[in-house]
Amino acid sequence: MCKRQNDYLKVAITGGIGSGKSYVCQLLREQGIEVYDCDDAAKRLMATDDNVKRKLTEVVGEDTYVDGVLNKAAVAKFLLTSEQNKKLINSIVHPAVASDFIASGMTWLESAILFDCGFQKYVDRVVCVTAPLETRIRRVMRRDGIDRKRTKEWIAKQMPQEKVRQLADFEIINDGRHSLKKQIKVILKALNQLN
Question: Distance of alpha carbon 41 from its chain centroid, rounded?
Fold first, then answer.
């Protein structure tokens, strides 16, 4: 069953760290396609949504917010303590982001952890942005100013690129050789034929 809104397919853009999915979303926005950013939404909801703030305070503790502002250090410390703590935070934030996306009326979303958090159930098609491992490592090191070892650790914590590619409906290869705009054009044409 297609989960349609305004008779348009809902589409997710995903990909591992350093794949360039945010840049692909920027190119989509330049073509007038609004893309819901799950990361930005999570940060916004943790900072402003009263229900999310109340639940986070219940699990993390009274120092979750200082003068109404999210205490990122306290949340990070709680998150890093155990896998169970991470699941607790996700069980609060992910449903809030999903509801916010549905309420937004947007038909495109960007999520690095689409399959990890089950967000694929809110869309009809998935586009995976891929790039060679070395390219991804270089991009992350340059962007975040971190060393190779830490970059590789971050990449290793994510779902393997090959698995994400297999689960997706479309792939955009962002290796600096294939034209992103041409690949986007082909995918948009295919999606329009499905609408």
Answer: 10
Q: Which residues are CB-neighbours of 166 under 8 A, at least 6 positions away?
A: none
* Angstrom distance (rounded) from CA 154 to CA 141: 11
2 pLDDT above the threshold of 80: no
- On whether the CB atoms of residues 17 and 137 are closer than 8 A, the answer is no
Q: For the chain, what is the radius of gyration of the CA atoms?
A: 18
Element (H, E) at 183: helix 180-194
Q: Which residue has tokens 């509801």? A: 99
The closest alpha carbon to 44, from 117, 6, 118, 97, belongs to 97
Helix/strand/coil for 7: coil
Query: Amino acid identity, residue 138?
Result: R
pTM: 0.89
DSSP type of residue 127: E
Q: Helices in 11-113 by DSSP H: which ranges?
A: 21-30, 38-48, 50-60, 72-81, 83-104
